[in-house]
Amino acid sequence: EPGCFAVMDRDQVLVTSRQARDSGIHSGMRTGGVAAISPETVLLKRDAGKDKIADKIFEIERRLLIKRRPR
Predict the structure, then answer these.
(1) Cα 33 from Cα 44, distance rounded (Å)
(2) 62, 49 Cβ separation under 8 angstroms
(3) In what order do the strands lie in the sheet with 5-9?
(4) What is the reported pTM?
(5) How would residue 1 be classed by pLDDT, with cut points 50, 70 and 90?
(6) Ramachandran area for residue 42 (φ above 0: left; ψ -120 to 50: alpha; else beta)
């Protein structure tokens, strides 16, 4: 979904959408800096639980691709 988004962890930017980067937002910025440069940027809190689930899904898919790889 297009828009200005930044994923935050411990008051610092982890990743951003392209639109947020184009607005000057980058990894490592603090919340106050984001608000000063691009107040329209939506700050999203990192969800470590979802990260773990995504990592498990990625690993399962990786293993399936390896099994299906032509030899």
Answers:
(1) 15
(2) no
(3) 12-16, 5-9, 42-45
(4) 0.67
(5) low
(6) beta
